[in-house]
Every structure is written in C-alpha cells, then in structure tokens.
Amino acid sequence: MLKLFRRSLLAVALGTSLLGSAAQAAEPQAGGTLNLVLNYEPPALIALTTVATPALSVSAKVTEGLLSYDFDLNPKPQLATSWEVSPDGTRYTFHLRPGVKWHDGQDFTSADVAYSIELLKRVHPRASSTFANVTKVETPDALTAVLVLSKPAPYLIKAFAAAESPIVPKHIYEGTDPLTNPHNNAPIGTGPYLFDKWVRGSYILYKRNPNYWDKNRPYLDQLVVKFIPDAAARSVAFETGDADLGYRTPVALNDVARLKKLPQLGFDTKGNSYSYNVSSLQFNLDDAHFKDLRVRQAVAHAINRQVILQVAYFGLGQVTASPIAPGIKEYNDPSPSPYDFDIKKANELLDQAGFPKGSDGTRFSVTLDYNPIAEDLRKTAEYTRSALAKIGIKVTLRAQDLSSFVRRIYTDRDFSFTINGHSNLYDPTVGVQRIYWSKNFRKGVPFSNASDYHNPEVDRLLETAQTENDPQKRVEEFKAFQQIVEHDLPDINLISPQFITIYNRKVHDHSVTADGIEGNLSQVWIGKQ
After folding, report:
1. How far is CA 73 from CA 20, 156, 274, 311, 386, in A?
2. Which residue, of 72, 101, 343, 464, has the fewest CB within 10 Å?
3. DSSP string, 434-501
C-alpha cells in the first residue's frame, strides 16, 4: 500500500536548507554568469521527445516538473505544493502552486498538467511505460490535477522530476506536431531561466526570469551552456576558468587525477541518484550474425569487464552483468554473468554456429557503432574491437555525431551492434523496461528496444512489476527478469560508471537534489573561491 504523501512549503524550505554541505552554508550572493559545459549539443532544449543526456542537462532550466527529489528520492514540492496518493494507489491528487506564470505571461493551470501527461504518454521514449496505467487526468479546478490509474503504479511518485516529466504549456503545443513544434528549440516554461538564444555549434544563453515564482531565485543573472566535444578542450576550459561546471565526468577519465591537483577546482559525486547508468554492448537481433544466440554467447565469453573498467573507466565504476545498476540496491541482482571470460569457449561456440576461421584467421567482419556522448563508450568500443579480433571477428568502428547515431540505431536500424549507455533512472519500470519490453520496439523512438528483443516471460514479469504493490514480490519479479535477459543476451551489460561533477570552487550549491545538474539550478550562486 502506498503511503500518503503530503508536503508543505515550510517543510521543503527547511529540507532544502539542510541539503547543502557545511562548506556551502554561506549566504547566497545574487548576480554573475555560470558557464556550464556539455560534451555535446542537445538535439532539443526540452526533454519531451528525447532522453538524450544533453537535452536532460538543459530542459529543467526552463520547463519544470510537479516535484523535485532529495538524494534519497523523497519527493519535494515544485509546481505542486502538496499531494495525496489514495490507499489503493489508483488516484494521485496534486495541489498546484498558485500564481505561477508561463514565460509568455499566461497562467499555469491544471489544464497544462493534464495535457502534458497525455502528451508525454504519446511522444516521450519512457513515458509510455511510466504512465501506462494512467487512464485520465481530472482537473476539478485550476489548481488541482488528479491522475486516475487503472492499476497501481508503485514507482509513479518518483516520476515527476522536471527533466523526466516536463510540464509544457498547453496553449503552445495543442494542435501542433510535438515532434516539430519550434518551441522544442525555443522553449517557454515556468522555470527560473528564460531562453534567450541558441548559437548552433557553440552555446545556449539563458537569462534570469525576474518573475519566477520563487521570488529570491534564481541567484544567477545568466546561464551559458557551452558545447565542447573535445575532452582535452574541456579540461583546458576548466583550467582557464572558461568552464565553471560540468557533470557526468566532463573530462577524459585519465585527466581527472591531474585536474584534482588544481586548487580552484572541486569534485563531487552527489546529485546522481535519480539517474544511475549502465553501459552495454547491444545487439541487433535481426542481424545475420547476432540473431544466433551462440554468436552472442561467444562475444560475451570474449569480453573481460574488469579490463574495461580499468582501460575505459580508470576504475571509476562497478562491473555489472545486470541491466539494473548496482546503485539500485533493492532490485539489482549482483550475480556474475553466466558467461565468464573464456576465449576457448568463445571459439568453440563460433565453430558450432557455422563461422569457421578463414585463412587469415577471420570468421566474419562487422561494424560496431558507439554512442559518441562519452569518452568511456568510445574506449569500450576500442577494447571490444581488440577483444573480438582474438576470436576471429573483425570489427570496424563507426564514429558519428549524436543525432546520426540516434537515427541509425533507433530509426533506420542500420547497425549490427553498438556500445551504448542507458539511464536506469529511479526505478527499473521506467529506466530498464523500455530496453527489453517487446511492446517498446518502436522505430524512431530513441533509447527504446533497439535490439528488437521479444520474450513473453520477460514481458510478463515487467508488466507484473509495473503494478505490484507487494515490495518483496516486486523484488522477486525483477530478479527473475534479470536472470532471463542475462541468459538471452539481447545485450551484454558491462559497467555502471561513477559520475563526477567538476566545478570551480566559486560555484556553490550546484548539486543539492537527486538529479543534480539536471535540476533547475535556481539555487546555484557564485561567490569567492
């Protein structure tokens, strides 16, 4: 049975004041410009139709969510000031913040919430499963929204963060194609920053919203989001002061130790508990080679996760065979892979599958795509090329920008296998199910079931866990799911990285919520080093 949730403005004020560390307890100062650096340019400025990390990085600065969350994923008010969940888990009542305005001056109301939930269900890569049980959103008055569910959704109270479930203006999106609405790239929201301009290939400029509902915030005058694809250039930017803040380990991992010696820079691991990640090698199960389980098993036997952890992640992470990250302790199955590192076994399996070695030692050639968003994924791809060469598989790496990668994998499906990373988010139903649920094989939807994996028992377990109110039964369902997919190998899960936030020490209160830098940054201020 879900507990009754109610939070008051006073409670959140007190709670927020306790989130910062002792070093961050100084009085905030107003003014200044913050330079946030990203590895890549976002495909859109609202995380409405995409869950690409660069879009998540900027979305919440303009569009907000109903709730925010502390490090332990306890909900806190944002656009909703209080809420109740019915004892049977089928009605979520949100009482909305009065006096909130959209950036164009229109009133924010429950109609915007109802419209946004329905829109997210249609166009968001994860929301079809997140809100699958939501049948309608009632709006008894302008400041009350009631989500009505056909079945309980035990994860749902954690789903309302700004970057995960953005609330968008109905009057801007209604009657348009949400995939091509120009406001995806010139957003109008309720948040602390106003979109000013997007200089393609260079930066996004946001300015302080003087009419923000939290009257003392934001403290910053401006937020500049810079795109610096080259890892060495990002390191230089932190050294010279051109970059003030970056997250998800924004520099090459082999450069972290050197940068830690610089007195002006600080390093933090907080603000990642809303979004643990797992990197994996994903197969296209329609590929002529990888549709054979024995070939996938051979690849699994040729991969040494401990080597990947050291050469690609410099020890900053944990090896995992499970798609559920070790950080989600209640559901993660820590069992080792059923396919241990065994080159002899890998070669035997490839022989059995009908791929003998040729005169040059090659069994077959294949192209490996990798997500370009992180250096560790590229290094993992390079390791994979080397590892598979030892069993006679010749691998060619294909580099491309993020938009091309997403289109190739999820729309064109023009790939054999890929090195990718997926956020688990706060619950496996939301972050993991989308990768393995057969009903989420949807061309054109990024970070969905790219493998075209179908297993009726996996579908049953995932769908049962979606509505299971008994915590122990839900644990058992997810454990059974993990064991099946670890055997079937639609992918090979590799590493759950430990993300580091790097900041100039003049920047305060940058990571005070579970979503950290992906939050709205209204609380960030700039002082003296």
Report:
1. 16, 12, 7, 32, 40
2. 72
3. HHH-GGG--TT-TTS-TT----HHHHHHHHHHHH---HHHHHHHHHHHHHHHHHH-SEEEEEEE---E
Torsion of CA 369, 372, 377, 383, to 10 degrees: 50
Rounded Cα distance between 247 and 36, Å, is 9
Q: Where are the domains of the chain?
A: 9-23+46-185, 276-497
CATH number of the structural domain 9-23+46-185: 3.90.76.10
> Would you state the structure tokens that stand for residue 176, as one six-digit string?
């348009």
Rounded distance, CA 437 to CA 260, Å? Answer: 42
Cα(198)–Cα(41) distance, integer angstroms: 10
CB 298 within 8 A of CB 347: yes
- Provide CB contacts within 8 A for 415, sequence distance 6+: 284, 287, 367, 369, 408, 409
CA distance 161 to 46: 13
Q: Quick one: which H or E segment has residue 38?
A: strand 33-38
Q: What share of the chain is helix, strand, coil (3-state, %, to 5)?
A: 30, 20, 50
Residue 37 belongs to what H/E stretch?
A: strand 33-38
Element (H, E) at 396: strand 393-398
What pLDDT, on a 0 to 100 scale, did the predictor assign at position 430? 87
Q: At 460, phi and psi to the nearest 5?
A: -65, -45
70 CB burial (10 A radius; 0-12, 13-18, 19+): middle
DSSP 55-69: HHHHHTTTS--SEEE
* Range name among 49-53, 114-118, 520-524 with the lowest pLDDT average: 49-53
Q: Identify which has the larger pLDDT, 479 or 434.
A: 479
Residue type, 370: Y
- The predicted-structure confidence for 307-316, as pLDDT tens digits, reads as follows 999 999 999 9
pLDDT in tens, 206-251: 999 999 999 999 999 999 999 999 999 999 999 999 999 999 999 9
Please compute, for residue 341, the number of CA atoms within 13 A of its CA located in the half-sphere on the CB side: 10
What are 435's strand-pairing partners?
Answer: none
67 is written with which tokens?
A: 């709730």
Planar angle of CA 93, 473, 452, nearest 5 degrees = 85
* pTM of structure: 0.78
Q: Supply the pLDDT for residue 529.
A: 61
| Residue linked to tokens 């008994």 | 470
The C-alpha angle 50, 401, 391, rounded to 5 degrees, equals 105
Per-residue pLDDT tens digits for 357-411: 999 999 999 999 999 988 899 999 999 999 999 999 999 999 999 999 999 999 9
Under CATH, to which class is 276-497 assigned?
A: alpha beta
Question: Which of helix, strand or coil describes residue 257?
Answer: helix
β 67-69/75-77 pair status: antiparallel
Q: Which residues is 147 bridged to in the sheet?
A: 92, 137
